[in-house]
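Service request form, structural biology core

Requester: graduate student, group of Dr. S.
Request type: structure prediction, single chain
Budget code: on file
Notes: please return the result as structure tokens.

Sequence provided:
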Amino acid sequence: MNDISQFSNGISVLEITYVIASVLFIFGLKMLSHPLTARRGNILAAIGMVLAIIATILFHQKDSKPIGNIGFILAAIVVGTVIGWIIAKRVKMTAMPQLVSFFNGMGGAAAALISMMEFPHVSPELIAKSGMANGHVLAILLGLMIGTVSWAGSMIAFGKLDGRIGDMRIKAMKYVNLTILAVLIGFIAYIMTRHVQASSELTPLIYIMFVIAVIYGVLFVMPIGGADMPVVISLLNSFTGVAAAMGGFLYNNQAMLTGGILVGSAGTILTILMCKAMNRSLLNVIVGVFGGGGQTNVVAGGTVKEISLSDAAVLLSYSKKVVIVPGYGLAVAQAQHICHELDKLLEEKGVEVKYAIHPVAGRMPGHMNVLLAEADVPYEQLIESDEINPDLPNTDVLVVIGANDVVNPAAEDDPSSPIYGMPIIKARDAKNIIVMKRGMGKGYAAIENMLFFNDKTRMLFGDAKSTLQNLVNEVKSL
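Core staff response, request fulfilled:
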């Protein structure tokens, strides 16, 4: 009879809905692993979130009272939906990393605000029973710290990706960041060991902790060079997930908890993979002491050789194997569709065409995959760098379009280089190399690329989109 009562007053309905939402989150995340199912995965996860929101509004109760201020809640949802929709529709593919950082920062800010609002209202009964040293308070404090760091760091990442904020490199930054992190942990320990009648007595400390967390979020992202931004974006995503999970603990909300855990764990795994791809340690990411910049000791010597459009078209058309290495320059030029047109033309001529995808090409994890998927490039043509490298000696022509650091031999040859040890696409192993660039500018790591001076390399200067279009016309005319 009690179970029937629970079902009738909505408690069981709410819990069942949260379980359904959690399952949809899991299936949605699983489907994101392949471009052919990613769209459906997004839709499934969105349905799960909508179900969780609706069920919470209709059935959630606290102290046997339903949720109040429904009008304000619905108005906020409508305003947020409209703003998010407009931003997402207007953003260009080249600005997708900035959008990811901005939206991720909003998630961290929401988690931090939840903690700031909930701390003064910790149950006096809970404090009387176990003091401030309880799981509820710990979840609030961790949510505040991690959410604030995620928000502040994401905003700095947004500014750096958008070119509005430069790097700030100070040798002592490692120790400054470690000190601030220790202070934040000290605040958590201090608050949880206080003997008070009500948590509101310690509210001023929460605001101080918030300010310190903002400072840490800013300082740990500021030194990071643009070439390393994919790693920090992954890390900040995981922070937001963990902060959201803390909110799930606070409200005993299974859907919020599951979503936060999925985002946090997926972001952490991706961060580790990105660190491996960049030859960085996770500790260095956290304290913000790694990054691009600096100069290689290798002095550019030799001659840069150019190739004409007609010669490039002939070379590509009469090859057996061609590998294309896309980079951020391809995204900036919005040339992915023309690039796909070129590879289809070559395949019609019997040429095998593959795309070599470096894990950190672009400005966020998977940037090139998303870019090429937008142009309907078959997923089977996208090959990870470690898989395609052994086949490059048998590749007739390797075409680098707007990429730089991910094909730079300094990662293997120059111990003084800031990218030394980073796994790269071994472009120089190919029989012939064509590099499409606007000019001889350096990449995001701000170091010279000796691949451009290789005897097998020919430079094809110009805007990627117009150059590819002219190359397509030349191939058609053969």
